[in-house]
Amino acid sequence: MYIVFVNPAILHETGMPLAAVTAATCISAAVGSILMGGFAKYPIALAPGMGLNAYFTYTVVKGMGVPWQAALGAVFISGVAFLLLTTLGVRQLIISTIPYELYAAVAAGVGLFIALLGFRNSGIIVPNAATTVTLGNLRDTSTALAIFGLLLIAVLLAWRVRAAMLIGILATTAIGLATGVAKWAPHSYRLSDLSATAFKLDLPATLRIGFLEIVFVFLFIDLFDNIGTLVAVGKRANLFDKTHEIPRVNRILLSDATATIVGSLTGTSTVVSYIESAAGVAAGGRSGVTAIVTGLLFVVALFVAPVVGAIPAAATAPALIIVGSLMVGVVAEIEWQDPEVAVPAFLTMMAIPLTFSIANGLAFGFTAYTLMKIARGKFREVNWFVYALTALFIARFVYLSRG
Question: Does the structure show a pLDDT above 80 at 396?
Answer without folding.
Answer: no
